[in-house]
Amino acid sequence: MTPIGVDCVISSDGSVQVRRVQVGQKWQVVEQGRQWEDAAGRHVLIMWAGGEVREILLRAETLTWEVIPPSGGKVAV
Description:
- The protein is mostly beta strands.
- Helices cover 0% and strands 61% of the residues.
- It has one domain.
- It has a 7-stranded antiparallel beta sheet, with no helix packed on it.
- A hairpin with a 5-residue loop joins strand 6 and strand 7.
- It is globular, with a radius of gyration of 12 Å.
């Protein structure tokens, strides 16, 4: 999994609103889809410019963001 920077707002209920994502030196504005929480942490679906949908995860134990590798199927946002 790839660590990334995420500019977001975290609400008191734990939900997040992702504004943009940093991979390497470049920040990119993204659109956000659904989100959910499990034992690993907070999962959020995002869409990059150009329409590529990815899942990002805020790890509960380290509070670091990661891009989850695609599982092969298409995901709707």
